[in-house]
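Tip: read the tokens left to right.
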């Protein structure tokens, strides 16, 4: 018995449809000295995310430190992916595990980790979570609180004392830090991803209180903590020698 192939090529194009989205090749042309020309292809992966379709550029950038991966995304004039967008990417990949690009995403999600642009600033009163898609996140709690008070949707506030560690998926989805990271509208996507990783449990890790402003970065993974969905908002905000240079990310078209 042959396995069902979950994608096909659109006749007359280089677009490949598969469950939940499609990928396509685009051509980048670089003119060289001496009348030369370099043509390189890049893969664009369309991913449903809430009521939008996002276009991720593949291959994933990495492995490297968060700063370097996001810097490369900036250099390509792309947006950095939020935690919600990254989980949408993983969700699509999980629906198409045999497709080579999706398989690579799942491999990095399990055996490395996927950086996100949803960053954290922990201070005395709790955690401020910010979608730093353009790399211009304000660096102090005072600045972020002004945006929060102005109802800026890029910033969310989580009170200190939230639970960390292993928890049932139902509790993970209702967790205030999870909601701040991905949003309540992403409930179904986050649930699907979590249940593919582990039938019953997920994991939250974050710094929920500090005496002064402390920046922390976010990554998601499925290979740590017993193959559960692992939402980690504890990564230091600088290149930590020898420790956190194994992450990947994909830029999002503007």
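Filled-in amino acids:
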């Amino acid at each position: 018995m042959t396995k069902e192939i979950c994608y096909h090529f659109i006749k007359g194009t280089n677009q490949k449809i598969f469950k939940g989205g499609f990928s396509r090749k685009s051509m980048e042309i670089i003119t060289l000295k001496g009348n030369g020309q370099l043509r390189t292809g890049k893969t664009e992966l369309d991913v449903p995310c809430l009521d939008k379709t996002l276009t991720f550029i593949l291959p994933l950038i990495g492995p490297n430190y968060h700063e370097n991966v996001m810097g490369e995304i900036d250099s390509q004039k792309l947006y950095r992916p939020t935690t919600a967008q990254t989980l949408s990417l993983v969700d699509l990949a999980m629906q198409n595990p045999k497709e080579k690009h999706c398989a690579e995403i799942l491999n990095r999600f399990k055996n490395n980790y996927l950086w996100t642009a949803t960053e954290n600033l922990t201070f005395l009163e709790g955690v401020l979570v910010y979608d730093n898609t353009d790399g211009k996140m304000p660096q102090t709690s005072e600045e972020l609180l002004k945006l929060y008070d102005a109802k800026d949707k890029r910033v969310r506030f989580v009170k200190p004392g939230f639970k960390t560690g292993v928890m049932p998926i139902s509790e993970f989805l209702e967790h205030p830090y999870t909601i701040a990271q991905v949003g309540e509208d992403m409930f179904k996507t986050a649930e699907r991803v979590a249940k593919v990783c582990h039938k019953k449990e997920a994991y939250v890790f974050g710094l929920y209180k500090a005496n002064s402003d402390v920046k922390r970065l976010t990554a998601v993974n499925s290979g740590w903590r017993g193959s559960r969905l692992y939402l980690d908002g504890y990564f230091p905000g600088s290149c930590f020698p020898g420790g956190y240079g194994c992450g990947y990310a994909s830029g999002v078209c503007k």
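The chain has a mean pLDDT of 88. Residues 7-249 form one domain.
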